[in-house]
Structure prediction request, 304 residues.
Amino acid sequence: MRSLLSINDISDEVETILNIATDFKEGRIEEEPLKNQKLAMIFQKSSTRTRVSFEVGMYELGGTALFLSNNDIQLGRGEPIKDTAKVLSRFVDGIMIRAIKHSDVEEFAEEADIPVINGLTNYEHPCQALADMLTVKEHKGGFDGKFVYVGDGNNVCNSLMLICGCLGMDMAVACPDEYRPPAEIISQAEEYAAQNGSTITITADVKEAVKDADVIYTDVWVSMGDEAEEEKRMNDFAPYQVNQELVDLADDDVIFMHCLPAIRGKEVTAEVIDGPHSAIYDEAENRMHAQKAVLYYFLKVLQE
Ligand code: CP
Ligand code: NVA
Prediction:
């Protein structure tokens, strides 16, 4: 049984899934391919885009999605992951989970008898990365350019590094030393990049990193779960704000991306996120097209 917990799980299939997403977006796939299928969606953290895009996406595929807030199911009262996974496997065809701990999603996938899809953990956000690369493909015509991530070496950054490596897109991460992505993510991304003819660079020098960038991407400085460090993080990341001065160092046709939610005036200025280079709403829309592709691929193609 295949699950999508990490970009590593689809390292050779990223382009296939992106092509399916484009086919969905352009109406080239039969109507209701997941007719009567059911997806359970467990959320241990807040969500706007992930919840709505999975729910609407499942509906558009002909199926149904069940929103299960952690507080409303017995999992939140301590029912074991094993029992939850085994029982849900008897009722539905797939499980999407947004979890506090990545290891919980791994345990879920081990115990479930159906595909499990990671809708964000502290470690990775693979569905976001797929939607992001769909956006890059559409805006830039492919993956030949330079993708620069500025800010926290977090879940979103991890999945983006891996996916850039898989697609052979040059990637630079500009972050304070203390917030570098985990060493094993860097080495895995470098391995993919070497196989696919691109490079991964990690630097603390944000001005150097954004030179000639085709994409500048950032995320919040305080992710869900990091709230206790808010004051320190605000200070540490202040020099990494994406503002017009930084954008002016990049390619003239640079696009600005952000997974959202964003805080204007912190990781990005309003001038940039609401300005002519911003692709944030196309990017958010692409969550649904990419997720429909993931659902179709894991719940139908891989089951045949
Ligand atoms: N980008 C993203 O995952 O947004 P939500 O937290 O709103 O789902
Ligand atoms: N890094 C952010 C992403 C939100 C979509 C978080 O984990 O809160």
Notes: The beta strands are 38-43, 64-69, 94-98, 116-118, 146-150, 170-174, 200-203, 215-218, 255-258. The chain is about 40% helix and 15% strand. The CA atoms of residues 11 and 258 lie 23 Å apart. The pocket of phosphoric acid mono(formamide)ester (ligand 1) is lined by residues 47-50, 120, 128, 259-260 (CB under 6 Å).
